[in-house]
Amino acid sequence: MAERKHHIHILGIAGTFMGGIAQLAKEKGFEVTGSDHAIYPPMSTQLEQAGIAVSAYEEDDFLSNPPEEVVIGNALSRGHPLVEDVLNRQQRYTSGPQWLAENILQDRWVVAVAGTHGKTTTASMVAWILEYVKLEPGFLIGGVPENFGKSARLGASPFFVVEADEYDTAFFDKRSKFVHYHPRTCVMNNLEFDHADIFEDLEAIQKQFHHLVRTVPGNGLIVMPNDDGNLQAVLEKGCWTPKETQGSADTFSDWSFKLLAEDGSKFEVLVDGKSQGEVLWPMTGLHSVRNGLSAIAAARHCGVPVAIAIDGLCHFKGVKRRMTKVGEANDIVIYDDFAHHPTAIKTTLQGLRAQKNLASTEDKSSAGRIIAVFEPRSNTMRMGVHRQTLPKAFVDADQVFAFIDPSWQWELPTESFESPVFVYDSYDALLTGLLESLQPFDRVVIMSNGSFGNIHQKLLSSLQAK
Fold first, then answer.
1. Binding-site annotation: residue ranges for ATP
2. Residues annotated in the binding site, as ranges?
């Protein structure tokens, strides 16, 4: 008789993090089931491909045949019927980060990428560079790297790359997720105020980042920008680990870059002021360049020669929903981007503007407009925290289209925008407005951290039908 596999059930399995946990557990030999309230691609596809059974919360009866352990996602709180059942029956439970630490990260060389922006992309870059030199790293990333086509895998080497999120761990553990990971190599991209639904102010987030710094060993490495005062304040609370800084060539830093193309699609990498080679890739924007520089620094700490890391980065394909080209119709290009914070929106549009400026005068696309389409869907945005800085994020857009759900009771400060703004209270009305406004050679960037009513494909299909 075959020995029964250790069975875990995951509540909130359809999120990118918890879905990644599910795939790692399955790959390691666990029996995995799970449930969620909304299950859609790409995670639904990945779970199906992994052979993981998923059900809706209202249909979930997993405690009739109790698993050995329930892994509870941080989207579930006290009062949720399934959470209450777990507690009332004294069922063994844990959080996703804790399960990851105990079952996957033990005895691994953990590379953690933290920061307000760029975590997904930078972690994907590091994982790809390690893969490029055949180190077969494991990884858990809050997105789908195009080079891998999946958000998580166990890997075969000592190295494991994890996107280190500062959001809280679970309803019973209010520490940031990343304090569980104990990285040997830690990248901190940047730090701004975000997640206003769980953090009172910037200082509260800095306290969590300080807790992260406390977990990095003395023989580890911290990679960080040389110009982020908020991160510098974190290190001033105490740091016991060597650090390497990155920045532009006209500032002092261990790692620096020289732009060889205004849009960031080509740049030179320097270490201690000495040229190491050039990156030529499909990415754009200054933020992408700096993410790439951090990835190369992290990879070197893992033993990858800088020249080879640079070559590997030239073959990096990006991450789905990070300026992903959805399609083109009637000479109109549509992009999908995850940007939902003013800084992320600004850097995305700056990169596209620089790319557009580089187009030759013979290229008709240089005459087109940049059309930004967004919804303030994140909790922080809807709480009005970024109300003053949001309009300035769209300075590189020629027109702005916004969807505001009436139930949010949130009003966009349209008078503060420099570009024309059009606000809609339904996806259908927004689609109609876009179709009436778009012109040949326009570039449309659709920005949201949700599914946005699948307006990306609806717009493309409508344009193709024309």
1. 115-121
2. 115-121
